[in-house]
Design goal:
Blueprint: H1 12-26, H2 34-41, H3 45-57, E1 61-63, E2 69-71, H4 73-95, H5 104-111, H6 117-126, E3 152-153, E4 162-168, H7 173-181, E5 189-191, H8 198-201, E6 204-208
Antiparallel strand pairs: 1-2, 3-6, 4-5, 4-6
Helix pairs in contact: 1-2, 1-4, 2-3, 4-5, 4-6
Protein name: Manganese transport regulator
Subcellular location: Cytoplasm
InterPro entries: DtxR_MntR_Metal-Reg, Fe-transptr_FeoA-like, Fe_dep_repressor, Fe_dep_repressor_sf, HTH_DTXR, Iron_dep_repressor, Transcriptional_repressor_C, WH-like_DNA-bd_sf
Length: about 210
């Protein structure tokens, strides 16, 4: 069955903005401003404002001037399409090409705009339809659905004395290398209280054992 695609072709920059907006709201339920979006992409607030206005005209985001930015249903579909590409490519790089989990993010960023949906579907099949990427993040299905998660940041966790690591943020390659050396990987158990500092703990999500 052919999947929905907006007839208005998106540019690489537009795809990056939609994916970044989704990523900012996937684990933190806080309003996203143009400033936060600019920081996420390493761009100026003025550039972000201009792009958000373009995306709003295309009905891909909802935005009130000086207010929060949210994805429209169409924008969310496009964002999840890019997230699916990125996470499948990360999984391929690790499982098939031997990349470290601290190396796959930037490579996937470069590749995700160059492949087709057909290629991604074939890659998904070749990999055995994985449900999670190397960092524990859920991989959207072809129709854009994601399983619900009850994971919380380790620095905010107040459950039992033992928890299971659900995901590790891929924002800091240095932390990923240190986490791997400490055995902090998705699926591993961690005993509380832990020895991680506040910043490191904020990059680990856990769920009850």
């Amino acid at each position: 069955m052919a999947r929905y695609r907006d007839p208005r072709q998106l540019t690489t920059s537009e795809e990056d903005y939609l994916k970044a907006l989704y990523m900012l709201t996937e684990w933190e339920d806080t309003p996203v401003s143009t400033g936060a979006l600019a920081d996420q992409l390493g761009l100026s607030p003025a550039s972000a404002t201009t792009m958000v206005q373009k995306l709003a005209v295309k009905q891909l985001v909802h935005h009130i001037p000086r207010g929060a930015i949210t994805l429209s249903p169409t924008g969310r579909r496009e964002a999840l399409r890019m997230v699916r590409r990125h996470r499948l490519l990360e999984t391929f790089l690790r499982d098939e090409l031997g990349y470290g989990w601290d190396e796959v993010h930037d490579e996937a960023e470069a590749l995700e705009h160059t492949v087709t949906d057909r290629f991604i579907d074939a890659l998904d099949l070749r990999l055995g339809r994985p449900s999670r990427d190397p960092h524990g993040d859920a991989i959207p299905s072809a129709d854009g659905t994601l399983p619900a998660s009850d994971a919380v940041r380790l620095d905010r966790y107040s459950g039992s004395s033992t928890a299971v690591i659900d995901r590790i943020s891929d924002e800091d390659p240095d932390f990923l290398r240190r986490a791997h050396e400490m055995g902090l990987v998705p699926g591993a158990s961690i005993t509380l209280p832990h020895s991680l500092n506040y910043l490191d703990a904020s990059m680990v999500w856990v769920r009850p054992a």
